[in-house]
Each structure stands twice: as structure tokens, then as C-alpha cells.
UniProtKB/TrEMBL annotation:
Record keyword Amino-acid biosynthesis present: no
GO biological process: proteolysis
Keywords: Hydrolase, Protease
Source species taxonomy: Bacteria, Pseudomonadati, Myxococcota, Polyangia, Polyangiales
Region of interest: Disordered: 1-27
Organism: Sorangium cellulosum (strain So ce56)
Keyword Transmembrane helix belongs to the record: no
Transmembrane segments: none
GO molecular function annotation: serine-type endopeptidase activity
Name recorded for this polypeptide: Probable serine protease
Domain of life of the source: Bacteria
Bias (Basic and acidic residues) ranges: 1-11
Length: 379
């Protein structure tokens, strides 16, 4: 049910692959292995720091988050697929866009929304690195487009300020700031930036800036396993992809990275379709609680399900449901009732896999109506 970890075979850092590999069969919407690997590093299970070069005294003056946002916003884009939402940013004025691999994988129809709200289809995938959750896609540029400059992610140190721009829950151009909490060396081929700036669903693939307005990372994952752990992929990995383009049509890339099911029980989905009125009385804070908690539960439960531990997956989802009910405002009755109904339906089933799916259906129905609401507000 939940997505199988998908990037265990990491390529050499000197030569990340750009051609899609043969498709592998998966069981559930993709969950990046970056989440698990970085979470383990954060808990001290792997090396968690590396020597850092000194900061040059000749660097330009620091900018405020507002100044960074004002300059960067025109180059930050939304990437939409069938039921998916992510962010990206322009790295070349002729339509090259950086994002996460998981934002574009398996999606045969992707649209990029520029800052002027114009939509442009993704034509091809120029390069990707699945192990580090990075991809570069191309659209037809209607004009010379604004782009962002990449900084030296190797110079990033714990305690440095960081600014993130993304589209949490579809709320375009949301700015958050924080600190680099740690530089996590997961293994010799993978280093991640752990940051305190929030990364909510819809912000994956967005840029992370240093205080000079340079991109030093790509927002990649959020873990809510007891605490919020947000991560970014260092920009130096992205630089390697930019000099190694190997274009693949989007249709070919989507077919070769599509998820499939294997070795797990056949399940009939029953995702409820809610009217927007179900969210009446819910504040924006309530919607964020719902989206973040459901996203975190799916990230935890997905690997458990794919490993055949259906009961644990179900209990993770049921526990998250109870937690959301406790945290929602008193006027947010519709989602609370939908969660109660999901648990009631699951409890009436004898099969643990079906119970897990019943809870997942309840989550997906709420996520879908939340996305419809925020998209409607934006329009």
C-alpha cells in the first residue's frame, strides 16, 4: 500500500545515471528512501557530519528572506500531474527545470505552471539521479525565462540560515525560513542537508537558498515520525546533472518509471469523493495538520505494508487518524467524521491488508478534497 523504498542502489557520485533503468515493480505510491536514510542519520545511526570549508570573507552581503523571495519567485514553478503536485525551479532560461525525481516519475502528463500562471507541458526528461531524488525536465520556453543561480553546497555548515520556497497544499509561493540543522553524511555517495525550515506536501522539488540568494539544495523529503525532519539534496549533485543531459521523451520516462504491484494482495480501492463543504469550519491550520499528518503516516506505513507487515501499517494509519482528531479545531467536523468513518469501516474488516487500505482510502479522499479547495482558492 504505501510506497516501497526505491533508491537503494546508489550510483557512483562521479557518474549518476541519466537514462531510465528498466522498470521495477512497486506496491504503492513512491516513498523516497532519502526519508529513511536521512532519518537514520539524524538518529545517529550513520555518520552525521563532515569537515566544512571556511566561508570566504569576500562573499556578498546577506539578504533577508523577503529580499530572497522577491528575487527568486519568478523562477519558481509548480509541477502538476494526475493527482500529484510538486515544485521546481528554472536553471536555464530556455526552459530547463530542476525538481525531485519522485515528482515526475511515472507521470505521462505533466504541466509546469510559471509565475505568470501560464501552463506548459513537460516535453522531456533531460537527466535524473533517482538515488538522490533529482531530475531535470524541459518545457518549451515562450521567452527567455528567469533562472536561479546555484551556490556551493559544500560550504554549507550547521547553523547557516536557509530559506525555502514551495507550494504546500498548492498554496503557491510560500516562503519559510530556518537553519541548516545538520549536514548528514548518509554514506560515502550521499550527503543530505537537514533543515528546520518546513517542507510540506507540494513543496518537494522547490529550491533552498543560503542567505546570499543562491540555491544550495532541493527540498526532498519530510518525516513526521515523532518529530518534523526536513531534508534537502545538496545543489552540487544537481550541477553534475546539468552537464550530462541525455534527453528522454516524457512518455518513455513515465512508462519506465511507473509503479506496479507485485506479490501483494489484490485490493479494490474505494476512495470517497467529498464535496468541498466537508471542509467548512476548518482553518488553514487544520488543513495543514491533516495534510502533514497523513503524509507522515503514509511515509511510515508504506514500507511496512510493502514488507508484508499489514497489521503494523494499519495501526500506524489508525493511530494517525486518532491523533488528527485530537488536534483538529472544534469547528472542523467534516474531516473528523470522515476519519471516524474510515476507522469504522476498517474495524469491520477481517483482513489486515484490507484494513490498511480502508484507512488509506480515507486519507486519500481527504487529501484530494484539500487540494481541490486550495486550487479553487488560487483561481
Amino acid at each position: 500500500m504505501p510506497g516501497e523504498l526505491h533508491d537503494d542502489d546508489r550510483p557512483s557520485s562521479a557518474a549518476p545515471p541519466s537514462r531510465p533503468r528498466p522498470p521495477r515493480r512497486r506496491a504503492w505510491p513512491r516513498v523516497s528512501a532519502l526519508v529513511a536514510a536521512a532519518a537514520l542519520a539524524a538518529l545517529g545511526c550513520t555518520a552525521s557530519s563532515a569537515s566544512q570549508p571556511a566561508i570566504s570573507a569576500s562573499q556578498p552581503a546577506a539578504m533577508t528572506p523577503a529580499q530572497i523571495a522577491a528575487r527568486a519567485m519568478p523562477a519558481v514553478v509548480t509541477i502538476r500531474g494526475d493527482g500529484s503536485l510538486g515544485a521546481g525551479f528554472l536553471v536555464r532560461e530556455d526552459g530547463w527545470i530542476a525538481t525531485n525525481f519522485h515528482v515526475v516519475a511515472g507521470m505521462p502528463d505533466l504541466k509546469v505552471v510559471l509565475s505568470d500562471q501560464s501552463e506548459h507541458p513537460v516535453l522531456e526528461v533531460l537527466a535524473f539521479d533517482e538515488a538522490r531524488d533529482l531530475a531535470i525536465v524541459r518545457i518549451h520556453a515562450p521567452r527567455r525565462l528567469p533562472l536561479l543561480s546555484l551556490g556551493n553546497s559544500g560550504a554549507v555548515r550547521p547553523g547557516d540560515p536557509v530559506v525555502a520556497i514551495g507550494h504546500p497544499l498548492g498554496l503557491a509561493d510560500t516562503v519559510s525560513n530556518g537553519l541548516v540543522s545538520a549536514v548528514r553524511v548518509v554514506d560515502p555517495e550521499l550527503t543530505l542537508l537537514q533543515i528546520s525550515a518546513p517542507i510540506a506536501p507540494g513543496s518537494s522539488g522547490g529550491p533552498l537558498f543560503n542567505d546570499h540568494g543562491e540555491v544550495i539544495g532541493v527540498a526532498a523529503a519530510v518525516s513526521t515520525q515523532g518529530q518534523n525532519l526536513n531534508f534537502g539534496v545538496p545543489a552540487d549533485y544537481l550541477k553534475r546533472l546539468l552537464v550530462r543531459p541525455d534527453p528522454v521523451p516524457l512518455s518513455t520516462f513515465a512508462a519506465e518509471t511507473a509503479e506496479e504491484e507485485q506479490g501483494l494482495p489484490a485490493v479494490k480501492r474505494s476512495v470517497p469523493h467529498h464535496a468541498l463543504a466537508i471542509l467548512r469550519g476548518c482553518t488553514e491550520g487544520d488543513l495543514l495538520v491533516l495534510a502533514r499528518t497523513m503524509d507522515g503516516a503514509i511515509q511510515v506505513g508504506s514500507p511496512l505494508y510493502n514488507q508484508g507487515d499489514f497489521a503494523s501499517c494499519y495501526h500506524v494509519y489508525a493511530g494517525a487518524s486518532l491523533d488528527m482528531e485530537r488536534r483538529l479545531g472544534p469547528a472542523c467536523r467534516g474531516p473528523r467524521n470522515a476519519l471516524i468513518e474510515g476507522r469504522r469501516k476498517a474495524a469491520g474488516l477481517d483482513d489486515e491488508a484490507a484494513q490498511a487500505w480502508a484507512m488509506r482510502d480515507a486519507f486519500d479522499g481527504l487529501l484530494e478534497v484539500i487540494l481541490r479547495k486550495v486550487h479553487g482558492e488560487a483561481q
